[in-house]
Amino acid sequence: MIPRDPRRVFSFASLQSEEGQALLKKYDVPRGVDSMILIDEDQEEFHMRSGAALRIARELTRPWNLAYPLIIIPYPIRDSVYNLIARNRLNWFGKREACRMPTPEERERFLDW
User: What does the alpha-carbon distance between residue 75 and residue 91 come to, in Å, rounded to a whole number?
Assistant: First the structure.
């Protein structure tokens, strides 16, 4: 996602980190959520699963931003597709032997680095 966010719209934190836990509490995110969460501090709200993914995609470079109009699909249907992809992503897209380490410039975007 970082290479597709040249305007540096997004910052990152793991759900398990102190910073992540503080944000979950501040925005009253339900306990036990283990999915992607987007916190919109300007609107003082959070989005999960497909709602988060599509709002993130809207801010990314092409072709990813072209996915945003899918937001008109009712969220139970979108989230079903999101969950299907999440369950099968490793089988479909593979798994890397090691994670890419962020550059020093990219590390600045991690709230819990």
Answer: 25
DSSP per-residue string spanning 52-91:
HHHHHHHHSPTTGGGGGGGGGS-HHHHHHHHHHHHHHHHH
pLDDT digits (tens, 9 = 90+) for 54-69: 999 999 999 999 999 9
DSSP state of 93: H
pLDDT band at 43 (very low <50, low <70, confident <90, very high): confident
Q: Is the pLDDT of residue 93 over 90?
A: no
Q: What is the pTM of this model?
A: 0.86
The torsion defined by the Cα of 82, 85, 87 and 90, in degrees rounded to 10, comes to: -140
Chain-wide mean pLDDT for the chain? 92
Rg of the chain on CA atoms, in Å = 15
> For residue 66, what are the CA distances in angstroms to 5, 23, 61, 81, 84?
14, 29, 9, 17, 21
